[in-house]
Design a protein that fits this description.
The protein is an alpha+beta fold and 146 residues long. It is 15% helix and 27% strand.
Length: 146
């Protein structure tokens, strides 16, 4: 690459000081889906993924969007396919008002924006855009259809 002064670029030594080998500003690489869900405490949802036989599929498929919820106070059965979309990386800017998408169960998920919040089928998203190694997770206020 040519430089205006004719000299090659010079390497500079990074003078950032690290205290005890730690740096305040760092980037954490996205983790696999199950690890991310586990670190957030969504153990019931993980159990449902495993019992449905979808762990490998959801972990290995690129572009997976997952809608999850906090562990319920009482156990009930859900269809994980109703909470997942494969082949679509659904970060919140793509989930625009009145957009509809089919989940893996073939049912329609409709997105709305109301009072500054995102809703999926009338269920409020309380935390969005949690990045995983192969997709994104959104935490719902409660399960669909409750």
């Amino acid at each position: 690459m040519a430089h205006t002064d004719g000299n090659p670029p010079q390497m500079r030594r990074d003078t950032t000081r690290f205290e005890h080998n730690r740096h305040e500003n760092f980037v954490t690489l996205p983790q696999p889906l199950i690890n991310t869900l586990s670190s957030l405490g969504f153990t019931t949802f993980i159990d449902d993924i495993i019992s449905s036989g979808l762990k490998k599929n959801l972990s290995d498929t690129p572009a997976v969007t997952v809608f999850t919820f906090a562990n319920p106070s009482k156990k009930f059965s859900i269809d994980i396919n109703e909470y997942t979309i494969t082949g679509f990386l659904g970060y919140s800017p793509k989930l625009v008002d009145k957009r509809s998408l089919k989940n893996n169960a073939g049912k329609t998920l409709t997105f709305k924006r109301k009072h500054g919040s995102l809703f999926v089928n009338d269920t409020r998203v309380v935390r969005s855009d949690i990045t995983t190694k192969n997709g994104v997770v959104h935490q719902l206020e409660h399960p669909f259809y409750t």
